[in-house]
Every structure is written in structure tokens, then in C-alpha cells.
Write a structure and sequence with these properties.
Elements lengths: L1 E9 L4 H10 L3 E2 L2 E10 L6 H6 L6 E2 L8 H15 L3 E4 L8 H4 L4 E5 L11 H7 L4 E8 L9 E8 L6 H26 L1
Parallel strand pairs: 1-3, 1-5, 3-4, 5-6
Antiparallel strand pairs: 2-3, 6-7, 7-8
The structure holds glycinamide ribonucleotide (GAR).
Length: 192
């Protein structure tokens, strides 16, 4: 049995963190046991902190405002990730732009609530909902120096139904995210 460690970084509600903890933490897939070794947020009031605590995990809080530059913040992230022994880092609603200090050192994937390369950035759900497109979707990609721009690993699309509200659209995105992200993590950890 090999134990493979994950780090999960988040800024908000943490529903994707919770899906990872429910589906993967301490679970065995073939010869691999997955452990979430680090939960980290840049916001002291992030909902994900209580969700991690339900699994006995005390989150590390690094407030980006306490650092003089993006690079210094990123160096602190790298230190925490390396200390945890995580071989894969998951950005699950981690709303920070990362510099090469992070991207060149950390093997990381990002979850994004649109069909990339469309609707990059922090307002993907609203922008894709408002667009003329007949489908919405979710992407998981490798983190690179380019914001929401690394190689795409997996995508899932759904049809917008007639008269769909923004709330229903957002709920559909989260439902897909909670399935897709854990699946991708297992595929990566069980291949490598
Ligand atoms: C998710 O929808 C994720 O795709 C999005 O933040 C949300 C976090 O939800 N990420 C981005 O927009 C990244 N640009 P959660 O805190 O409930 O997991």
C-alpha cells in the first residue's frame, strides 16, 4: 500500500474541499491510500475551515494581506505544501493569482467553473450564464504561469435548460465539480 498525500487550497465555501474529504480522504483505491495532508486558506472566515474541522483537520491560514508581495505569499504557500509532504496540490476555489515562485515549484491542478479557454477569471459562472452559449461546464487543468491557462485534464459540459435561473445553473456546476474533481485526483494519484 502506498500513501499519497494531497494539499487542498481554498478561499471560500469549501464545498469542493468537502467533496474531496468525503470521497477521498483516508480511502483506498487499488494499492493507493489517499490522505489530505494539508488544508490551507487565505481567508480566516472561509467556510471550508469548518468543513475540514469535521474531518479532524486544522486548516493553515495564510492571509495574503500579511505579505509584502505576491512572491512572498507564494513562498509561504510553497513552504507549507512542502512541509506537508503533498505530492499533488488542488486549488479548489483558491482565488489568488499565483506567481512562478509557486507555479515552478508545486505540482498543482485547478478547478474552474467554465469550459476553458472560455470565461477565464473570477466571474466565470455569471459570464458563462449570461453568454449566448447553449452549454455550460467545468474544467480541471494543470496550474501554469498563465491564469486559468494550463493544459486541460478533464472537462464536463451540460445543456442550459430553457428558463434556467442563475441559481440552478450554479447548482448544476457545483454538482458536476463535486463529481469531476475527485475523479481527476484519483486518476492522477493512481497513475503516478
Ligand atoms: C468553484 O465553483 C470553483 O470552480 C471556483 O470557485 C468555486 C469554489 O466553490 N473557482 C474559480 O472560479 C477559480 N477561478 P467551493 O468553495 O464551494 O468549493
Amino acid at each position: 500500500m502506498v500513501v499519497k498525500k494531497l494539499a487542498v487550497l481554498f478561499s471560500g465555501n469549501g464545498s469542493n474541499l468537502e467533496a474531496i474529504l468525503q470521497k477521498l480522504h483516508g480511502k483506498i483505491f487499488g494499492e493507493t491510500k489517499i490522505e489530505v495532508a494539508l488544508t490551507l486558506s487565505n481567508k480566516a472566515d472561509a467556510g471550508g475551515i469548518a468543513k475540514a474541522a469535521k474531518f479532524g483537520l486544522k486548516s493553515v491560514i495564510l492571509n495574503h494581506k500579511d505579505f509584502a508581495s505576491r512572491e512572498e505569499f507564494d513562498a509561504a504557500l510553497v513552504r507549507e505544501i512542502e512541509k506537508s509532504g503533498a505530492e499533488l496540490t488542488v486549488l479548489a476555489g483558491f482565488m489568488r493569482i499565483l506567481t512562478p515562485v509557486f507555479t515552478s515549484r508545486v505540482r498543482a491542478i485547478n478547478l474552474h467553473p467554465s469550459l476553458l479557454p472560455l470565461f477565464k477569471g473570477a466571474h466565470a459562472i455569471e459570464q458563462s450564464f449570461e453568454s449566448d452559449m447553449k452549454v455550460g461546464g467545468v474544467s480541471v487543468h494543470w496550474v501554469s504561469e498563465e491564469l486559468d491557462g494550463g493544459k486541460i485534464i478533464a472537462q464536463r459540459a451540460f445543456e442550459k435548460s430553457a428558463g434556467m435561473s442563475l441559481e440552478a445553473y450554479e447548482a448544476k456546476i457545483h454538482e458536476i465539480e463535486h463529481e469531476l474533481l475527485p475523479q481527476v485526483i484519483v486518476e492522477i494519484l493512481c497513475q503516478s
